[in-house]
Amino acid sequence: MDFRLTPEQEELRRKTAEFARGRLRYDLARADSEGCFPRDAWTAVGRQGLLGLPLPSSLGGAGADAVTAAIAWEALGQGCPDPGLPFSLAANFAGVVVPIWKAGLPDQQRRFLPPLLDGTRIGANAATEPEAGSDLFSMKTRAMAKGDGYELNGTKVCATNAPVADLLLVYAVTAEAEGKPPEITAFLVERGTPGLHLEPFPGKSGLKTSPWAKVRFERCFVQGGLRLGEPGSGRAIFERAIEWERVFLPAAALGAMERLLESSVAHARTRKQFGQPIGKFQSVAGRIVRMKLRTEAGRLLLYRAAQALEVEGRAPLETSLAKLWLSESWVRSSLDAVGILGASGVFADADASRQLAAAVPATIASGTSEIQEALIARCLGL
Ligand SMILES: Cc1cc2nc3c(=O)[nH]c(=O)nc-3n(C[C@H](O)[C@H](O)[C@H](O)COP(=O)(O)OP(=O)(O)OC[C@H]3O[C@@H](n4cnc5c(N)ncnc54)[C@H](O)[C@@H]3O)c2cc1C
Predict the structure, then answer these.
(1) Does residue 2 fall inside a structural domain?
(2) Which residues form the catalytic set?
(3) Which of 10, 100, 198, 351 has the fewest C-beta atoms under 10 angstroms from its C-beta?
């Protein structure tokens, strides 16, 4: 087994990290405090070709394999000081681009993918409801067949990117029968569709530049041509897409953890107390060793998950392992970094405390850690 990256992967990683460090810089303290969405940075990521890396060139992508795409997103997370931007990008990619790529009709792909890939349009995924979080498919939003389309009624919450989105991918119940699971179907709903209402939702404690909203559908009519996949294919579309999210969200987290590790080592080597660098204290060095171990183990899990997705098409076990390990590790490594930095780790604009605030919600999004454990247990036959 060869763990080395190919020269092309090395080059993509180098170029992406350089791009992220140079172009994804904005007044983050202000953006965080005002909850500003970094629209220009989003456009720049699209122009850089990072939004559709694993899609075939016939659909406007770069035709990269999933491992190469994950390597690029890791570099994006490492170079971009704002954890909110990669989070929003992953929601756009896995929540909207992947479903259209995997389940869209050719004319849906032609119409919606190019602007989602070049960064001119933004997608949001609306699945979660006030009463349907982990138990997602107990959703109450209904889509009733009407004329040549469907009428949607219901309320979604936590929809990342919704305040700035041009296109929403919405999951709704299309049929129910006693004793059977409800039939779930996916729909593409464009901004401005009558009956689609974006409503304020509480701000987050982290990932502040990644906006979210409550979305209400009130007699919202959607043309039949905007149904994604066959009636009843919504679960499969969702489950397939979320496996990609469980690679791309952790990839950016891994990159951010690498940045934390670097800054923690640099600080532990230069900050002196009691006449010596604090890194010479075994307990401080131990924190750094554990950060390194989490990062290295996480990278193996991540690349393995991406490879399984590429080869098998579906990878529920590998993607849940990667998501669980990396999101929990991100919290622990951010806490270690804050500890090593002392008071400077909790300065309002410190990278470590911004990452800690981002890492906590990342353990909930894309399925909580307990749900990842349940999925892994199921794959093991429990
Ligand atoms: C930052 C962020 C962004 C998000 N973005 C989106 C988005 O773009 N689109 C979207 O549709 N949703 C989004 N979500 C919603 C997210 O998918 C849900 O928050 C998540 O699925 C958990 O649902 P819940 O918050 O209702 O918690 P609940 O399901 O109420 O869970 C509460 C607690 O109970 C535990 N629990 C629940 N069921 C079980 C079980 N069977 N076994 C063990 N423990 C269990 C959970 O693990 C958790 O600890 C986002 C969430 C966050 C935090």
Answers:
(1) no
(2) 245
(3) 10
Which atom from ligand 1 is nearest to the alpha carbon of 374? 42
Confidence of residue 348 (pLDDT cuts 50, 70, 90): confident
pLDDT in tens, 215-258: 999 999 999 999 999 999 999 999 999 999 999 999 999 999 99
Give the pLDDT confidence of 150-172 residue by residue, as tens digits. Answer: 999 999 999 999 999 999 999 99
285 CA distance to ligand 1 middle (Å): 35
Give whole-number Cα distances, 112 to 105, 115, 120, 312, in Å.
11, 6, 11, 26
Q: How far is CA 264 from the centre of its chain?
A: 25
Dihedral sign, Cα of residue 175, residue 314, residue 71, residue 295? positive
Interval between CA 77 and ligand 1 midpoint (Å):
23
Predicted TM-score of the model (pTM): 0.97
Q: Are 284 and 348 contained in the same domain?
A: yes
Ligand 1 binding pocket includes 368 (Cβ within 6 Å): yes
Count Cβ atoms within 10 A of the Cβ of residue 48 and give its class: 0-12 exposed, 13-18 middle, 19 or more buried.
Answer: middle
How would you classify the pairing of strands 227-228 and 212-223?
unpaired
pLDDT, the chain, mean: 97
pLDDT for the residue 1: 84
Domain assignment present for residue 63? The answer is yes
Task: Let me know if residue 1 belongs to a domain.
Answer: no
